[in-house]
């Protein structure tokens, strides 16, 4: 199956970001589960790779984690993705 590139990049990115924020926004989660982390990382990198931004997203996520060590993996990936699409 051949996937076509989306014509409206920012509309898709906004919906992705809102979906990912809903995934990790649940209350009373002391630690991010490995499955939730995998799901977020997989989705973010899949979408970033469509635009050739996967390495930049990973670097930005690592920088976000370095600046704020309380971020979960999922939160840092979302911040890295948001940083790269600006």
| Shape call | globular
Work out the number of β strands. 0
- Quote the beta fraction: under 5%
Report how far apart the termini are: 30 Å
* Low-confidence runs: none
Largest sheet: none
The total count of helices amounts to 4
The H/E string reads HHHH
Helicity level: 55-70%
Based on secondary structure, the structural category is mainly alpha
Mean pLDDT: 78
Q: Rg to the nearest angstrom?
A: 13 Å
Keywords:
single chain, 86 residues, mainly alpha, 0% strand, globular
In short:
With 86 residues, the chain is mostly helical.
Topology:
Layout: H1 9-24, H2 34-50, H3 54-67, H4 73-85
Description:
The structure is a single chain. By secondary structure, this protein is mainly α. It contains four helices and no strands. It has helices at residues 9-24, 34-50, 54-67, 73-85. Helix 2 (34-50) packs across helix 3 (54-67). The longest helix has 17 residues, at 34-50. The protein is globular.
């Amino acid at each position: 199956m051949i996937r076509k590139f989306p014509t409206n990049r920012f509309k898709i990115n906004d919906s992705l970001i809102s979906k990912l924020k809903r995934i990790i926004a649940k209350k009373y989660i002391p630690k991010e589960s490995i499955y939730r982390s995998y799901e977020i990382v997989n989705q973010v990198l899949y979408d970033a790779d469509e635009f050739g931004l996967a390495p930049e997203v990973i670097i930005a996520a690592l920088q976000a984690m370095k600046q704020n060590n309380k971020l979960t993996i999922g939160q840092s990936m979302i911040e890295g993705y948001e940083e790269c699409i600006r």
